[in-house]
Write a structure and sequence with these properties.
The chain is mainly β. Helices cover 0% and strands 25% of the residues. It has no helices and 11 strands. A hairpin with an 8-residue loop joins strand 10 and strand 11. The termini are far apart.
Amino acid sequence: MIAGNSATNDPEIYSQGGTVTADSYNLIGYGGDARSSGFTPGATDIVPSGALATILTTTLADNGGPSTGPGAATWTHALVAGSPALDAAGDSGLATDQRGVTRPQGAADDIGAFELEPAPEMNVQGNGGSIVNGDSTPDSADHTAFGNVTVESSLQRTFTISNSGNADLTDVLVTIDGSACAAGATSCIPAGDFTLVSAPDATIAAGDSSSFTIAFAPTAAGLGEAGVSIASNDGNENPYTFTVNGNGVAPTTIT
């Protein structure tokens, strides 16, 4: 893989009579440009149409391996989900990648020094905006703050779980614990007034999404707050949590 280099002229490959082997499962350049001269990609070579960030992470990092720490030989640029390098090297003849991860992890070897291991990746959105895992400050912009709701009425908000990884997100389970009200609240309605109306799919395929709906139905005036927890097989966000709140408002009495 040769992509994202920074030489002044034709930064990926600049050949002036040297030998560069084409048609060998190379990935060269990005943005539809091989960024090369003196070299013509072959039939099995790839010139990606997307930006560099759609191929790999642009920062060299410790992504695992036998050696760790700054400057270690196993520092790599990780491939990203959906990268054109995935399963695109055929049988490279290499049993492992640079980090010692077994090849292949998919239908064929990945191009480059990094073999992407299948893993799900959860993201939760409300009103089209991402909700950060662990968010404890409800906001009306992402629908985690339900606002004023008249007592004995109900307001529903729908949230979406997306799987941007390259493996199924499984064992998805949403719970609402109703454990606390906001610090300093002068009145606090029962947190059980937040309920799960509809649940997401238990399994969300890579690249897919599923929604769930929470209702806030205050039974008394005051502030209500509850914690939402989403369990799954996401390796680094299990559970995925955020806080919701709403304000119960006494109905207007006409005399």
